[in-house]
């Protein structure tokens, strides 16, 4: 078995951070992937919300090939200009909310959030950061400090000081927490890792108002929700929320490690040379791939596909909830960021295992949930194939 050699090396030498699934993925195509033995699987996780336009997507391959023939990293990195970077900036400016006038790049979501928090402190000359319970903002020490889940925090104490938490979706709690020390309020417009929670319509709008009144900068962490994951290009953009920072990663480059953050003129005008930087930030390779992904999303109206496929999913999953009320407690989500909440973790684990046994990858989330977040350009027949497997898996554990 070819995979065996891969398992042995990874198991022996990789740090033991993951409960591994004994499958060695060799290649992919769209929503499908194949292991080293040639077995085909459907990927309903899109590599944790990353491969937003599918695996081995030709426009990404082409961007990688073409850019790699030119240049990967500039002399003096960001000190010199890059046509690939300028092209990406131009395409981003067309899809970002128009009040966000400046951008900078990172290699991951955590780094983008880290930078936004750091810069918010500098701009406001305040120290405190408010985040929400159940949130997820990354695994660096400052973003773990901003993450409202004990499992990502408690082992690493002491964390960064001056981080406080409020109840997600609760305006009174936010209002009470805001004072003259609060530099930033960081929020996912829809919580992803925390279990796919959608706040009320008015919550984000009112949070914007409260932050403005308090001189607190609003950071929208759109690392998971951005780039059409829930339908629109950005959740806060579609809602007309004027955030001070919008952070991005995951889908931005469809699988190539890349991220970034956009900021308002108000913020940008108070930043100076030396406030931030990084060796790879705005690396031409990442820029070329991100530009290709954004172009694809726009040209193919992927947003419409997400809304259509998301509706189909919610309808079918809603039927499961009616049919299997003893084991399914809730179905929620938007676009193609969806979650089935089961009665307990054991059931969710069994369903997840049964799906994998039937060659479908899903993601067990927060113990009793299963998150479904496939490629955004998934076709109806591919979606149905995966959903049929899920239904069989659910029925097998009743
Ligand atoms: C909302 C959100 N923010 C930040 C991150 C961290 O991103 P990365 O893993 O690229 O550092 C994640 C990752 O899951 C996320 O979902």
CATH superfamily of the largest domain: Type I PLP-dependent aspartate aminotransferase-like (Major domain)
Shape: globular
Q: Please count the beta strands (DSSP E, at least 2 residues each).
A: 15
Structural class, please? alpha/beta
Number of domains: 2
Largest sheet, if any? 7 strands, mixed
What is the N-to-C succession of helices and strands? HEEEHHHEHEHEHEHEHEEHHHEEHEEEH
Strand content: 15-25%
Low-confidence region ranges: none
Assigned CATH class of the largest domain: Alpha Beta
Key words describing this protein structure:
398 residues; alpha/beta; Aspartate Aminotransferase, domain 1; Aspartate Aminotransferase, domain 2; 2 domains; seven-stranded mixed beta sheet; four-stranded mixed beta sheet; 14 helices; 41% helix; globular; binds pyridoxal-5'-phosphate
What's this model, at a glance?
This protein has 398 residues and is α/β, with parallel strands linked by helices. Helix 3 runs antiparallel to helix 11 (284-299) and helix 12 packs parallel to helix 14. The protein has helices at residues 2-13, 46-49, 58-70, 83-95, 109-124, 141-145, 171-177, 201-214, 235-239, 265-268, 284-299, 302-323, 345-357, 380-397, and strands spanning 25-29, 32-35, 40-43, 100-106, 128-132, 163-166, 182-187, 217-221, 245-248, 259-264, 328-334, 337-342, 360-361, 363-365, 369-372.
Describe the structure.
With 398 residues, the chain is of the alpha/beta class. It folds into two domains: 2-56 and 301-397, Alpha-Beta Complex (Aspartate Aminotransferase, domain 1), CATH 3.90.1150; 58-299, Aspartate Aminotransferase, domain 2. It has helices at residues 2-13, 46-49, 58-70, 83-95, 109-124, 141-145, 171-177, 201-214, 235-239, 265-268, 284-299, 302-323, 345-357, 380-397; strands spanning 25-29, 32-35, 40-43, 100-106, 128-132, 163-166, 182-187, 217-221, 245-248, 259-264, 328-334, 337-342, 360-361, 363-365, 369-372. A hairpin with a 4-residue loop joins β2 and β3 (40-43). The longest helix has 22 residues, at 302-323. The chain is globular and about 55 Å long. The chain starts with a helix and ends with a helix. Bound molecules: pyridoxal-5'-phosphate. Pyridoxal-5'-phosphate (PLP) binds next to α5.
């Amino acid at each position: 078995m070819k995979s065996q050699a891969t398992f042995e090396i990874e198991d022996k030498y990789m740090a033991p951070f993951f409960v591994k699934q004994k499958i060695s993925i060799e290649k992919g195509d769209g929503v499908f992937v194949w292991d080293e033995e040639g077995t085909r699987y459907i990927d309903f996780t899109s590599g944790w919300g990353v491969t937003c336009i599918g695996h081995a997507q030709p426009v990404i391959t082409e961007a990688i090939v073409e850019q790699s023939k030119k240049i990967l990293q500039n002399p003096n990195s960001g000190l010199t200009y890059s046509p690939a970077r300028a092209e990406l900036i131009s395409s981003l400016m067309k899809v970002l909310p128009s009040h966000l006038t400046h951008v900078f790049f990172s290699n991951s979501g955590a780094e983008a959030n880290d930078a936004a928090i750091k810069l918010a402190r500098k701009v406001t000359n305040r120290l405190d950061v408010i985040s929400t319970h159940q949130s997820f903002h990354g695994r660096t020490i400052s973003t773990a400090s901003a993450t409202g889940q004990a499992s990502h925090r408690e082992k690493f104490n002491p964390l960064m000081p001056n981080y406080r938490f409020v109840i997600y979706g609760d305006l009174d709690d936010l209002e009470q927490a805001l004072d003259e020390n609060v530099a930033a309020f960081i929020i996912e417009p829809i919580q992803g890792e925390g279990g796919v929670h959608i706040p009320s319509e008015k919550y984000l709008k009112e949070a914007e108002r409260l932050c403005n009144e308090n001189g607190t900068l609003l950071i929208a962490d759109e690392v998971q929700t951005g780039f059409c994951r829930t339908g629109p290009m950005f959740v806060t953009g579609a809602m007309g929320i004027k955030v001070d920072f919008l952070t991005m990663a995951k889908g931005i480059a469809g699988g190539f490690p890349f991220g970034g953050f956009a900021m308002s003129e108000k913020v940008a005008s108070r930043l100076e040379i030396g406030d931030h930087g990084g060796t790879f930030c705005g690396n031409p390779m990442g820029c070329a791939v991100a530009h290709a992904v954004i172009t694809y999303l726009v040209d193919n109206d992927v947003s419409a596909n997400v809304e259509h496929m998301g509706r189909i999913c919610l309808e079918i999953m809603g039927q499961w909830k009616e049919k299997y009320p003893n084991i399914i407690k809730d179905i929620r989500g938007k676009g193609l960021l969806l979650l089935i909440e089961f009665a307990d973790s054991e059931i969710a684990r069994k369903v997840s295992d049964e799906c994998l046994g039937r060659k479908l990858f899903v993601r067990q989330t927060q113990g009793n949930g299963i998150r479904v977040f496939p490629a955004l350009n998934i076709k109806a027949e591919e979606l149905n194939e995966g959903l049929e497997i899920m239904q069989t898996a659910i029925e097998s554990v009743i």
